[in-house]
Predict the structure.
Amino acid sequence: MNSNRTEILLRERKAVFVNRDGTLIDNEGKICISKKEDVTLNESIIMGLKKLYDLGYMIIVITNQSAVAKKLITETQMNEVNKYINEILSIRGLKITHFYCCIHHPSIKSCVCRKPSPYFVNKAIEAFKINRCKSWYIGTENKDKICAETAEIKFIKIKSNGNIDSALNQIINSNPESDYYNLNEETF
Ligand SMILES: [Zn+2]
């Protein structure tokens, strides 16, 4: 980690929360991502996240992986995929601080962590001492929006497998002390 980033990180403690499938990685045409061969990074998002990472944002993934509950993949496979994502991101000079994965599905077993529950966002905020007001949530679905709203994190909606370029400047130029508000790609 470069020392400038370390300094910023310790001072600011800000994070960008992202969805995994359809945001960080391309999931088009796939029911679930079961192995590393299935992983294709969404390049335009990666470039944007790298900019935010260099500005000291932690990148934290919040993902529903009900394929585990449905026995389409094992938890080990899911963890292997997450590990692989971080391996290929490290080549690009960024890292996911943590993957928070809900491995449940309400048809099998109810849980407290499945999005739109803000459970994992709140857990991350506590674990990494993140400043809510300085943090953002980038997601594709309404459940991401509700999750962000409930956790009082500023939300940016992007198109599935789309990019975050239009939102980057808003994040970079935002007043971190401003009140909680929503952003939608239509506003850019
Ligand atoms: Zn869960």
Notes: The domain at 3-187 is CATH 3.40.50.1000 (Rossmann fold). The pocket of zinc ion is lined by residues 102, 104, 111, 113-114 (CB under 6 Å). Residues 75-91 form the longest helix (17 residues).
